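Consider the tokenized backbone below.
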């Protein structure tokens, strides 16, 4: 486990926001054995989608950035429940709970943002996409909530990259396996597969997302529910529901890295 201040520094370095500095003078911490902590020595990137203040910075989030063969807006505001509970806050709270669980299993966890504040924006999707590449992270999970207005739309789905040279050909197969592991873990935890995504199996493969296209490590984006559905929203806004989501995602990470 690393200190929060160290984790923030590592996150900034991974996204190219700060230059690498000299090694810390702090005494090295002896790591427990892999038998004691199953994720010891593993590096996981957790990406809580959006930022609470994105809507206050339209000029910044609407500028175009590389997205892997195309250009897309830096970020978006995200969705919200009918009662106004922001997706950014849901993503953040699940991510914090997931980080705690992964660190308890011995993993080093890097978050793509270190706050959930109305006076901040980003980071851009290209930075999110590249997060973990330099450090060769074991995997990355991007956490989101959907905002479908389709009647009766509810449930989760997992998005993985398509096989596109030169962008995702190297991570397509492990990302697909991670998507299958994530779907299985969510199902075991009692969550329903989305009833409004083509195919109906809870998996969606997309070629238009920078978070996936720019990654050099196995990556998935998970829409944990439809925030516009009252039943999903009730779960997604509750502490108990957020704990359940985090537990399922931690189980998915552990299962995938045990292969």
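A designed sequence for it:
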């Amino acid at each position: 486990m690393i200190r929060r201040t160290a984790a923030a520094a590592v996150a900034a370095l991974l996204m190219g926001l700060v230059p690498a500095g000299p090694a810390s003078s702090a005494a090295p911490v002896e790591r427990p054995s892999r038998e004691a902590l199953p994720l010891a020595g593993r590096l996981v990137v957790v990406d809580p989608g959006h930022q609470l203040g994105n809507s206050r910075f339209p000029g910044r989030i609407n500028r175009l950035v590389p997205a892997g063969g195309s250009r897309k807006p830096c970020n978006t505001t995200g969705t919200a429940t009918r009662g106004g509970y922001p997706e950014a806050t849901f993503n953040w709270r699940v991510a914090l709970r997931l980080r705690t669980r992964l660190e308890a299993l011995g993993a080093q966890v890097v978050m793509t943002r270190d706050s959930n504040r109305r006076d901040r924006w980003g980071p851009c999707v290209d930075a999110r996409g590249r997060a973990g590449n330099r450090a060769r992270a074991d995997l990355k999970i991007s956490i989101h909530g959907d905002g479908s207005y389709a009647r009766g739309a509810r449930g989760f789905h997992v998005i993985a990259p398509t096989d596109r040279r030169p962008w995702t050909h190297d991570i397509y197969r492990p990302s697909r396996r991670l998507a299958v592991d994530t779907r299985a873990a969510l199902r075991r935890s009692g969550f329903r597969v989305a009833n409004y995504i083509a195919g109906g199996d809870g998996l969606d493969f997309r070629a238009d997302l920078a978070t996936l296209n720019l990654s050099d490590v196995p990556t998935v984006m998970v829409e944990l529910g439809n925030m516009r559905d009252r039943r999903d929203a009730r779960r997604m806004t509750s502490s108990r529901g957020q704990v359940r989501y985090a537990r399922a995602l931690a189980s998915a990470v552990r299962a995938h890295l045990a292969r």
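Helices lie at 4-14, 58-61, 87-104, 125-130, 172-188, 210-213, 230-236, 239-257.
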